[in-house]
Amino acid sequence: MRSFTFNLVFWPVLALFAVLAWLVALAGWQGGVRTVMRTACRTIRGLMHHVLGAPVEVRGTIPTGLPVIIAAKHQSWADGFLMMAILGDTNFVIGNEIQSFPLVGRIVAASGATMVNSPGLSGAQGALQDAIERAADDPRPLLIYPEGRLPPVGESYRYRKGVHLMYETLGRTVIPVATNTGLRWPQNQWRKFPGPAVVEFLDPIPPGLPRDDFLPRLKITIETRTRALEAEGQAATETVS
């Protein structure tokens, strides 16, 4: 029942904010688009808590307003909403499969974020390099999902070289992020599940590591902690049920 009610509320709310952001984008007001997006994300986090019964606990040190690269685990559609709700004003890299949703392409472009090729798709060649060049003068955190797509809970995909290209070119600290949101909002599935969810900011990885050291370290750090959070979340679900 909670899942049905959440979906019943979520989609109209998302559509309302999308139309509002699109109208603001038409006016060319980048700051306004970002404000609408952040408000939408905070509203969705609130719906997860109060309607779905999936409160989100944030652990670790949130790098608000710091020029770092945030490399996060991606299990759920909830992830993007939650990261923006938690971080506030954030730059981000997003796969271009999101363009299949009406209005979203213009909104993302107007916000100053960057679309890159999702696995199996084309049409955004050169976008990551452009994002890196623009991020060099942007003091906001820069969010990227290293796997480039959503693996099921308990699994991972190859960490793509784009995250190292950003790390190497910008010379910035990387903040790994683990999560178990996929337990509550599995990938893009209609059915959701109540219970606590966790987003955890982990120890930073300093700049300067070679690719063969950096990528394995990033993956081991994120995946090890994510498996632990999944086990914790599954135990909490069993307790509730």
Blueprint of the fold:
Layout: H1 2-26, H2 30-52, E1 56-59, E2 69-72, H3 78-87, E3 91-95, H4 104-111, E4 114-116, H5 127-135, E5 142-144, H6 162-170, E6 174-179, E7 197-201, H7 211-240
What does this structure look like?
With 241 residues, the chain is of the alpha/beta class. It has one domain: Glycerol-3-phosphate (1)-acyltransferase (3-Layer(aba) Sandwich). 47% of the residues lie in helices and 12% in strands. The chain has helices spanning 2-26, 30-52, 78-87, 104-111, 127-135, 162-170, 211-240; strands at residues 56-59, 69-72, 91-95, 114-116, 142-144, 174-179, 197-201. It has a seven-stranded mixed β-sheet with strand order 1-7-6-2-5-3-4, sandwiched between helices. Helix 5 packs parallel to helix 6. The radius of gyration is 17 Å and the shape is globular.
